[in-house]
Amino acid sequence: MNIDTSSSDPTTDVVLIGAGIMSATLGIMLKELDPNLTITVIERLDVAAAESSDAWNNAGTGHSAFCELNYTPQRADGSVDISKAIGIAESFEVSKQFWAFLAEQYHVEGIQRFINHIPHMSFVWGNENVDFLRKRHAALVQSPLFQGMEYSEDPDQLREWMPLVMEGRDPSQKVAATRMDLGTDVNFGSLTRGMFTLMQEKPGVAFHFGHEVDKIRRKDDGTWRVRAQNRATGEKLKLRAKFVFIGAGGGSLPLLLASGIPESKGFGGFPVSGQWLKCVNPAVIEQHQAKVYGKASVGSPPMSVPHLDTRVINGQRELLFGPYAGFSTKFLKFGSFLDLPGSIKATNLKPMLIAGAKNLPLTRYLINQVRQSPQDRLAALREYLPTARNEDWKLEIAGQRVQVIKKDEKQGGVLEFGTEMVSAADGSIAALLGASPGASTAVSIMISLIQKCFPAQATSPEWQARFREMIPTFGQSLADNPELVEQTRTHTSAVLELSVDAPLGSK
User: Fold this and answer.
1) CA 227, 232, 235: angle at the middle one, nearest 5?
2) In degrees rounded to 5, what are phi and psi of residue 168?
């Protein structure tokens, strides 16, 4: 444990490192729970939400497990496990409730609409995959959270749902799809900047953009000394905080390791980069209005699940396909090639080596992705859009993700593909590691963090009442309550203007 006994520095209650969706969610939630809290946000770039939260750097899918097949794995006996899908769907409903609360409480000029109704579809071909999708649908519709999901193997029906996907397809190919009209597209960059704008209007909140944290040390009184450097001038910023949250995306791991807390030992990271094909032909874009997700290749990471994806970015309708995976030693899109080697410590070397040895198919997959030619990428696109033409698509760089590697008593080291919250025993510092479905479930993740790191306040009558104001279903299960699901969705859809009849991207 690193202990710093240096002289006192300016004090703040909370330091949020990283100006992404997680810090924004935690910051605005804490200010709603206790308006007197002082909060300082430190971000290495000059704007908020420029890394993983930026609209071009993530899928923008309101991850509700409507279409993501990797959230419903098939068991050895052929049945489908929907437990993770139910948890994610419920968490997304919690997020929508909090967003609706903010929308009702505040009006911020200049913030573009961040959420739109987009149908979510899963699409597969081949007898084995069709059989899987049929079983998946049958299992999911037993839950109130997935009632209304449609399933079809009828090519005529599928042509109505997704004409571009079916145009030019071999009529003898066995195909199937599910459709959930309640799906959404979320601009997490716009949402993040909107929440920070709300925070900026509140007293006791300070922002330091263009500052990179280079030291985190615990003081002998249990508080934390955080030091950052202005990347333009070199000037040092020094703060003392009662609580520190590290929500720096791929940059969270090095900062967590630098904190020296025992709970950080054994954690490592494996970076995975991404690319999109962006459609540049407006006529093609207008023919598709859905998020169509398929099955990931064997050995590929969940972030590489292929999808033909309608987006609304900066008020403009877009069409993306991908993502295509790649490998870089950077932990951030605007990071350093030394990030990965610099993160290797004596405490995580063994888990990283073991996890690497056990995930050789992933390594081969990434090598093959890096070696892909434009013709290879077009061939992958044509599995979902048979009539695709190379001139209609442009390659764009997506965000950087760092998959979590952690110690495991039985296996030595495991590679995780979800999100992982790591906190000190006393709750004075916490870090969020990992990737999907993080942004969509940010509200649930931050509620759990608050309950763990602010236990006395979180259980107080005042904070409990405020939680219920922000999230009306707080403390209740949606998964087993059809009436509550219907009531909740009706309310949030009305507040967030998610009518299925509204024009795409309209106010």
Assistant:
1) 40
2) 75, 10
- Residue 88 tokens read as 């994610």
Q: Give the angle subtended at the CA of 393 by the CAs of 392 and 394, to the nearest 5°.
A: 135
DSSP designation for 45: S
Which of these, 467, 109, 123, 108, lies nearest to 294 by C-alpha position?
123
The three-state DSSP-derived secondary structure of 172-220 is: CCCEEEEEECCCEEECHHHHHHHHHHHHHCCCCEEEEECEEEEEEEEEC
**Peptide bond between residue 271 and the one before it cis (omega within 30 degrees of 0):** no
Do 169 and 175 contact (CB within 8 A), yes or no?
Answer: yes
Whole-number Å distance between alpha carbons of 122 and 131: 13
Query: How far is 307 from 478, CA to CA, in rounded Å?
Result: 28
Q: Residue for token digits 């030693």?
A: 329
Parallel, antiparallel, or unpaired: how do β-strands 211-219 and 224-230 relate?
A: antiparallel
pLDDT in tens for each of the 507 residues of the chain?
344 444 568 899 999 999 999 999 999 999 999 999 999 999 999 998 887 778 777 777 888 999 999 899 999 999 999 999 999 999 999 999 999 999 998 876 556 589 999 999 999 999 999 999 999 999 999 999 999 999 999 999 999 999 999 999 999 999 999 999 999 999 999 999 999 999 999 999 999 999 999 999 999 999 999 999 999 999 999 999 999 999 988 788 889 888 999 988 877 777 777 788 999 999 999 999 999 999 876 655 555 688 999 999 888 899 999 877 766 777 666 677 666 677 777 776 666 666 566 665 666 666 566 667 778 889 889 999 999 999 999 988 777 767 667 666 666 666 666 678 899 999 999 998 876 667 899 999 999 999 999 999 999 999 999 999 999 999 999 998 999 999 999 999 999 987 655 555 554
Which one-letter DSSP state was computed for residue 109? Answer: T
- Measured distance CA(361)–CA(74) in Å, rounded: 19
Distances (CA, A) of 195 to 19, 29, 256, 357, 419: 10, 10, 25, 42, 22
Report residue 350 CA to chain centroid gap. 28
User: What's this model's pTM, rounded to 2 decimal places?
Assistant: 0.88
Under 8 Å between Cβ of 85 and 72: yes
Q: Retrieve residue 154's tokens.
A: 């009828």
* 372: its two tokens: 């892909």
Q: Which CA distances in Å does 75 have to 46, 386, 408?
A: 46, 32, 23
Quick count: other Cβ atoms within 10 Å of Cβ 231?
14
List of residues 6+ apart from 223 with CB closer than 8 A:
11, 240, 241, 242, 428
